[in-house]
Amino acid sequence: KPIRPNIPGIDLPGVHPCWTLEDARAIQKIAKPGARVLQMGAGFIGCIILEALASQGVKLTVVEMGDRMVPRMMTEKAGGLIKQWVEQKGITVYTKTKVEAIQQGGSGLQVSLSNGERIEVDLVISATGVKPNIEFLKDSKLSIHTGITVDDCMQTSDPNIYAAGDVTESTDFCTGKPIVNAIQPNAADQAMIAATNMAGGHAQTRGALQVNVLDTLGLISSSFGQWAGVEGGQYVEHTNPDQYQYIRLEFDRDRLIGATSLGLTDHIGALRGLIQTRVALGEWKDKLLEDPTQIMAAYLAKGQSQAAWIA
How far apart, in whole angstroms, are the C-alpha atoms of residue 119 and residue 47? Predict the structure, then answer.
């Protein structure tokens, strides 16, 4: 369910989350060409909403409290390039900024920002994140933390109950730590594993790999695994800002453990493959440190032969 920010005026008419069909219809009634719209949040879901709003011809302002767009899946440099791209399309973006209050006033809603500005709009959309809707289980005997705890077979603490998808707290592929990995590929993989085991077969995951692929007004971005790197690890970064192209690779000893990519799509499968197979790169690590755009060649040389895995 959507996270509800604790902001004065969040319950006013004209302030909506974007989660249900009812929400979408309420937004559509107001988001006509020329309508003044403010969106709180520029994360993964926020960028999808942003694109839909832009297609309607609204006058859009996006407010993100992080220091860049998509801060939970993009490095500072990549998130900054996405911001530039969006602004080039005529959208106003504030980062390091919070919505402090919403009031009725004038011909619409008055929105007060932490930078001191006040903006009058017709519609406010809250896209500030989501969390598993598990309150109905609070009195059950299931083990619950951020999500419903499951093992590698998607079995809960009750051996007769399985869970899969966005409500689960499973094991991160890279770190081995608990994670709620609320993405469609993970949900599909977990559903297959849960169904197989419930039907008497046997299947298990090697962990939930963080995979994010996003289209923001035609600019494709992606991140995989430990894209922020690890302490003591190495990284290489290549940027072509004029073409909105960027790639960063994260290494831990001899293995690729994470990656961020922007404006480059040919190697997305190779990045995932090299991370998920945990292949030892050998001499290809030095080659990638010298030129990270050679990732497809590295995958063909080192990763493809080991590309049998359970996602």
Answer: 21
Tokens of 88: 């080039």
What pTM was computed for the model?
0.91
Token digits for 183?
Answer: 């993405």
Sketch the domain layout of the chain as residue ranges: 15-126, 135-198, 211-306
Q: Which CATH architecture has domain 211-306?
A: 2-Layer Sandwich (3.30)
Range with the lowest mean pLDDT among 44-58, 156-170, 251-265, 296-310? Answer: 296-310
Q: How many CB atoms lie within 10 A of CB 236?
A: 15
Checking DSSP bridges between strand 123-126 and strand 15-17, what pairing results, if any? parallel
Mention every residue, 6+ apart, whose C-beta is less than 8 A from residue 215: 51
As its CATH architecture, domain 15-126 has 3-Layer(bba) Sandwich (3.50)
Cα–Cα distance for residue pair 286/268, rounded to 1 Å = 20
